[in-house]
């Protein structure tokens, strides 16, 4: 029964989304306040309905209701409860429902907290959100309905893909979608501004927090996906330049650029046209990512959703929204007045450079991802574009950007003082340089490139700290005053520092694991020992083990240092999920400080068990850095100047205390 | 990531006999030769997988290719000769780094063209705007400015 109610709620939500798409837009045209206001209750009710539908599907999964086709295909009664719940979005239909749930959530947030937006802007934004929701609800109801019943309910389900039976599924897709879909708000604001023909610094102030939220979640989502792939797939890679990974990286790159250009627009009223275009492009890349992943266009056979009707449907959505927004931009964009002037060496100039490099990087990833499809479409040839291509093109594009990052916050608006910035960054430069030289001579296997990479990572970290130190006057004034000044700095400055330093940590992790990791591939008999990077690993035994819905062979290793100290046991296993008969590897990972020892096992051969061992120095910095970046985003969001609704409250506060001192 | 995981599973399913990518018995005795083999393997696609190199793949076909690469290296081929040999048998699809040729010109040129074009555009816009002298204030504006400044002091 609840499944039918959920289904019904979803249909109602579609009807409401259509109302939300049309009525406020009409109201804004006619200048009718009641019609414009209708968007808000409709958006909130629509969200409640979709949340109800989603809850109904989760309930069906929890109860293992195999009369529902989607549950039968993707669940199993013996599955642990957590994986029953997360299994709801571990498939095409359920994940699309999560997608629109998050879309409706953001729409409801604008409706609930957008009270001090200009009424026509709010009405238009909600209308565009309603239009996007309508398109995707139609897509779900017509091609990917999760509520379809089976005529005769099977006794047992077919189980969830075993690789997805992991805590990663609980974290990664929701975070990723909060990021992907969060950019829809920036998109709606951009389109609404184009419809309105009005665009000012207040617009940028409104867009920035939404972009920041989406960006922070997307950063976390990508990082969690990367860590999940790292420990689950069993060969210790953290980024594969896979098309589906690229699909999430492109909006991240464009979103990062948008975040920075919105600052210029807010503070200096410059780059208006560009910021609007970037807001449109960022969400377009999110939509493109959804299309690439959902339609199965990337590979003809080995794909996730092989049904071509879905692909054509999403392609139509893609063409409608991207084409429509860009057409509107072409017609209206030129009428937006250009903003403030600035010298190339200035904060604005640095941010333009940031945008140039990030956009080029995003375009490179886009072309690399789509080029094989293009070649296949115009000729019969098939080519591959993989990791070696992206490493060769992406890395050179990113290097100058990374080198320039510490300068940005230290340059003044309008006209900056480059020698002055260089002088302030002296400490960061020499410290990073000294660390690079030291690592070249002190670390085995470190070549010049590795040493320079380590220097680059530290340059970013020290550079970010330099900015805070300079602004609080550390080293120039007494420590007490400096501390007081530091705590008085706006939170957004701490946000910038965290985000840039986090980037540095990620760079450090990538460089050190790429250049310095050790690998050993061998066959081992019980009792046999091997050494890697100062640790010994003794293969104890291989034992069978039975889990709730799998059986596995567990290889037990005794871990110790080469000096003889014991570090306990390490278990690495090969699992077989019985319902699907699918094998997976469960890597044995031991974290030591920031580094990890990674053990995965293969076949049993006459010579012994095949074992692969990696020593991955500082590997955890890759994801820790991303989390620091994400934290920077949220810290910046807490800055009262940025808080949603803050401008009006601040004005009221200023009026109350007669001008105030802030 | 999850979708990649799906594809990996498909790959495993189609070609069962799960094995860890590079097998101990494949490794060449000469470390220099083995290093070259690993480097080449990372540039060759596992034909039956989704965007996986043969160095990472567990599929049987990937193993065959890894062994083939090592055989050619032992026979004294240069890296380029090994790649040419494999392309002649499996087609250009096997290369994860597409060749520099006319057909792939757009692919390889795109990053440079976009960067150069973007820089040129940014500079021209900035210079054009830098040259325009802002219009002088009208008398009303100057009066308004005086009023504001009076209030401030």
Structure description:
The complex is a heterodimer of chains A (662) and B (153). With 662 residues, chain A is α+β, with helices and mostly antiparallel strands. In chain A, the strands form 2 sheets. Chain A has a 5-stranded antiparallel β-sheet, with no helix packed on it. Chain A has a 4-stranded antiparallel β-sheet with strand order 1-9-8-7. The longest helix of chain A has 32 residues. Chain A is built from 21 helices and 9 strands. The termini of chain A are far apart. In chain A, a hairpin with a 2-residue loop joins β8 and β9. Chain B has 153 residues and is mainly alpha-helical. Chain B folds into 2 domains: 93 residues, Cytochrome C biogenesis protein (Helicase, Ruva Protein, domain 3, Orthogonal Bundle), CATH 1.10.8; 51 residues, no CATH class. In chain B, 60% of the residues lie in helices and 0% in strands. Chain B is built from 6 helices and no strands. The longest helix of chain B has 27 residues. The N terminus of chain B is likely disordered. The chains are: A alpha+beta (662), B mainly alpha (153). Chains A and B meet through α8, α9, α10, α13 and α14 of A and α1 and α5 of B.
